[in-house]
Amino acid sequence: MSIDPAFEPPYVVLEPSRHAAPFVFNVPHAGASYPDGFLLGSRLDALTLRCSEDAFVDALFAAVV
Fold first, then answer.
1. What confidence tens digit (pLDDT) does each residue in 39-59 have?
2. Which end of the chain is least crowded, N or C, by CB within 10 Å?
3. How many angstroms separate the CA atoms of 50 and 60, rounded?
């Protein structure tokens, strides 16, 4: 099974210039990319899929880096 190019990279790791504390912040539901192939394979419409997002949480934690 190949990964849809629209999902590349599947995740992004952002690191600070200097490590000051041993914390990892993970925001697995922050994505808002729904390629056509993904939507065609889903039983849910795009609006319903958006309800499963943690919208803007990635932006909220961006300053943590």
1. 899 999 888 988 888 888 888
2. N
3. 18
Alpha carbon distance 15, 46 (integer Å):
32
Report d(CA 3, CA 36) in Å as an integer.
Answer: 13
What's the pLDDT at 1?
Answer: 57
pTM summary value: 0.55
Note the Cα 11 to chain centre separation in Å. Answer: 7
Question: φ and ψ at 44, to 5 degrees?
Answer: -100, 150
Contact indicator for 3, 26 with CB cutoff of 8 Å: no
Cα(first)–Cα(last) distance of the chain, in Å? Answer: 33
pLDDT tens string 20-37: 888 888 887 787 888 888
